[in-house]
Give the backbone structure.
Amino acid sequence: MAKPDDRSDNIRKMQEMIDNTIENMHEAGETLHNTKLTGEQRAAIEAKNRRREEAIRNFRAEIKDEYHDRFGD
């Protein structure tokens, strides 16, 4: 039998993902600042952080949707 879809902690899980992503961005920023990197390495880290920023925006939008679905406006 399939397990029921329990979304009761989705907001908490998405917030944890946001927090982890922000932490990863900060660590990458420290690497950019404190480490001698090639142009290619620097570009790869910067591109990854741009993707992380987009992921954070998407997570926040999902949290808003989840909140409105659960609690209304």
Notes: Helices lie at 10-34, 39-71. The mean pLDDT is 92. The two ends are 35 Å apart (CA to CA). Residues 39-71 form the longest helix (33 residues).
